[in-house]
Amino acid sequence: MPNAPITADPADLHARAVSAWFGERKVLDRVSLAMPAGQVTALIGPSGCGKSTFLRILNRMHELVPSASLAGEVLLDGVDVYAPQRRFTEVRAHVGMVFQKPNPFPAMSIYDNVTAGLKLTGRRLSRAQKDDLVESCLIKAGLWNEVADRLRQPGGALSGGQQQRLCIARSLAVSPRVLLMDEPCSALDPTSTRRIEETIRELMHEVTIVIVTHNMQQAARISDRCAFFLAEQGTPGRIVEHGTTEAMFGAPTDPRTADYIHGRFG
Ligand SMILES: Nc1ncnc2c1ncn2[C@@H]1O[C@H](COP(=O)(O)OP(=O)(O)OP(=O)(O)O)[C@@H](O)[C@H]1O
Ligand SMILES: [Mg+2]
Ligand 1: which residue has its CA nearest to atom 7? Predict the structure, then answer.
């Protein structure tokens, strides 16, 4: 089956007692969170409470900051991504990331943008396999219909929302098992935002999604589970409450969660 699509199953992700530091400064304190396979988990909370730091710990990007350190475990289907024998390149192929600002390679073609991550996996594909992969990733990212007739045009020529979907297609090309998204819609207009939200709901069947958002309506619309982060009065960020989105929005147990969700602070 030379042209069989390369697929992977969504993985369970489980953070256990994760703490993080930048130099001497502790910014996360013993954060534990289960992010179940095939679900969308939303991380919410005020600015500076450590959501992005937590996300970057999940795929070992935190260690790229020279002053950064951490404690705790991150289990990907039960195996710690920080185990000594695990290479960070392998972890990043399994756990993809989409950022706040769309970051395609602007001069590179749409086609080459999608396949740009393949080198990381060391997988060699024939031309026909690549064509199939590009098509299937663009379909999954909800962009195929808009770009099928101009795959050789530069990625930088797309609109902001299209560029973000191109970045999603690029991250899908290496068959990640988890996709991390850090405020992926905050630079986009409402129509593009809706389009990305639809894409997220379609993708959750094949990849576990963890998304940071400041938009409470968005968290309510797209997530199955939520975790509310808070760093009070100069203390490190902690999870105040987590659970199903229905429970978090319908009947939060902590008054601080209710206040935040209803826009009373942050
Ligand atoms: N590279 C860094 N070096 C030093 N401190 C950092 C670095 N990145 C983040 N911090 C600090 O860590 C804390 C958590 O930051 P983080 O970016 O994770 O917050 P956040 O919840 O994502 O905020 P926002 O909602 O504004 O994106 C903040 O106090 C921040 O100043
Ligand atoms: Mg952030």
Answer: 22
Give percent of the chain above pLDDT 90.
83
Q: Is residue 234 part of a domain?
A: yes
Residue 51 near ligand 1, beta carbon < 6 Å: yes
Compute the mean pLDDT over every residue in the chain, rounded to the nearest whole number.
93
The ligand with the least distance to the CA atom of 99 is 2
* DSSP SS3 for 208: strand
Residue 135 lies in a domain: yes
Report residue 260: phi and psi, to 5°: -70, -45
- pTM given for the model: 0.94
pLDDT at position 224 over 90: yes
- Domain annotation covers residue 4: no
CA of 237 relative to ligand 1 center, distance in Å: 10
Q: How far is CA 44 from CA 35, 85, 127, in A?
A: 14, 33, 42
Q: Count Cβ atoms below 10 Å from residue 254 Cβ, excluding itself.
A: 13
| Protein residues with C-beta less than 5 angstroms from the ion ligand 2 | 52
The pLDDT of 60-83, averaged and rounded, is: 95
Number of domains within the chain: 1
* Residue ID of nearest Cα to ligand 1 atom 2: 22
The residue segments making up the domain with residue 193 are 13-261
User: Quick check: is 165 in a domain?
Assistant: yes
Find out whether the beta carbon of 50 lies less than 6 Å from any atom of ligand 1: yes
Mean pLDDT, range 144-160, rounded to an integer: 96
- Is pLDDT above 90 for 1? no
What is the whole-number distance in angstroms between the Cα of residue 121 and the centre of ligand 2? 28
CATH number at residue 72: 3.40.50.300
Ligand 1 atom, smallest distance to 23 CA: 4
What's the helix, strand, coil split of the chain in %, to 5? 35, 25, 40
Burial of residue 118, with CB atoms counted within 10 A of its CB: 0-12 exposed, 13-18 middle, 19 or more buried: middle
